[in-house]
Amino acid sequence: MNLPVQLGLADNILIALALIGLYSIILRPLQNSETWKRRGITAGGFQGFPLFLFMRTQRGLSLLDRLSRPRRFWRAVASAGVPMVVLSMCYFLLLVLLMTYIMIREPPQPSSYNAPRNILLIPGLNEYIPFVWGWIALFVTMVVHEFAHGILSRVEGVRVKSMGIVTFMIAPIAAFVEPDEEELFGGRDRPPLVSKGARIRILSAGVISNFVVAAVAMALFFGPVLGSIDPVERVVVVDVAEGSPAEWAGFESGMVVLQVDGRDVGSLQQLVSDQSGPDADIRILHDGREQVLRLTGEPEQGILVASVFEGSPAERSGLPAKSVITKIDGMKTPDLKSFRERMNSTRPGQVITITTSLGDEYRVNLTSKESIGEDDADGGAGFIGIGISGDALYWGGAIFQEPSARQFLQVLKEIPSRGLAGFHLLLSLPFSGITGFAEKGFPGFSGWLTAVFEPTGWAEPLGSRFFWIANLLLWIGWINLYAGLFNCLPSGPLDGGHIFRDLLQVGFERVVAPAEAERLSRTAAALFTWLVLTSLLITLIAPFTNWFSI
User: Is 400 within 8 Å of 271 (Cβ atoms)?
Assistant: First the structure.
């Protein structure tokens, strides 16, 4: 007899601590092992508990020397990239501070978007970053970043002692190039080997290389890759009610409808017209596998409510999100056109009765958009206060829709041409997705998305493997971009913190003595480090402050 096991938060924490403890016990023999040190492998951690594995090697250092030989070229590239690093530093700092200000003024409710594990960009831990593509992209990002530091170190004559990777448990969390710190930053009684300008170039090299890789990957993704993708007419399951016949039959969100009773289906109208009785055999595609599920009930066409506005007439009436509106005042609204025509004939103050696919009725006292602070663009028509996801079909507890694949693809293609707004959309794309299509984030072309798009032209012979290329380029570009921006923050121990301090010191030396300039720059750098870290911590805990409100 198998009994279901319900693990709470405390259970999961204890299991995690047990695994970490076991791992540290296994690594303990490596802590003081001279044999493994000679092989470049050491263990480190906290309070005597080894948690991290450092794997160093001097192999490849000769490659750094060879790559660094066009010294004028690398100096010119790094010097040209420094202004971009400074601009990125200012931009991302302002973005972090603005986010912190918003969090303080109006702390959001806890959700998957602001869960602590989703703030960290660790594939597998962050539910919005795919495990495979995320780790490949993260590895490329780390290698490119550290290799660039190494090349510029050799260009400026700084010795590189070793390079390698750091793992936590079995997961690689960082790559590193280990320059001689005394030559780079100086020691107690020894000045640095390089000038501040050279050091800024060395420290900026990693960020610049991330930006270059991101630009190349994104240019390929938004260019020939998206240009070789066409939409396919499909019907997708977008929601399944708990305890419904559809759930009992095995239907889940994200399933793609292929056939009904042996006939191909590409639209909601075909799904309805192909039903030959109260029961139907529906062939679906899910997680790369096809299967046939039997669905019972009478299908009803209507409009899917994607969201209900706060303080709106719909919210006051109790109309829930994810419901399908089938009638207004007893008149059917099978599609978006009929719904809009019916609503445009109403006026503020009018009471209408909305009927959903479940047979529930809601009496809604319409208002005007101005009453809740919205622009009244409908010329005085009554306002209900809902976000509409488009035409839908309710059948046995499952909600079916035709994905707006063509519109989604068009929005993606337009991102590079939308300037700063497009840049912000790109930064938030994995989390926010595209309104009306992928509200829960855009992981790339995977899952049911591969069923509503197909490669064309030069990409057609690749078949489904083409989407591997698309996902790889998307995530390599996105993680390199985000990692570069984050490293620009003027906070230790990030590259941006060191760059910020050196830039300040160069500026201060123009007006005060060098010793005073160094003191002022260290103080300012420490203050900005405190500011950045405090802002990040506030962003992390702000959604949970509502729990402590009286």
Answer: yes
